[in-house]
# Entry
Amino acid sequence: MRIYPNPVKTTATVEMNVDVPTDRIVLEVIGIDGRMLGSIVLHGTYSGIVSLPLDLQAICTGGLVPGVYHLRITIGRVSTIATLTVVR
# Structure
């Protein structure tokens, strides 16, 4: 999985390889303290190399203050976590 640009201001792209075709991907933004700050469920047909838009203002109402966050991506029963740095 790759997130770019990272650091990010408000929007980024999440690129990943979806090995098993799926119709649902969940993106969750988690604070460094473990609290879930926002999430979005994407519905569609996903397989192979997938690029998804990540709009932090849409996922986390009001946006995020600068800092380090985790992005959990769940496809089926498999979750992957990446680190995301938010700047002004």
Observations:
- Strands lie at 2-4, 11-31, 36-55, 67-75, 78-86.
- The chain is about 5% helix and 70% strand.
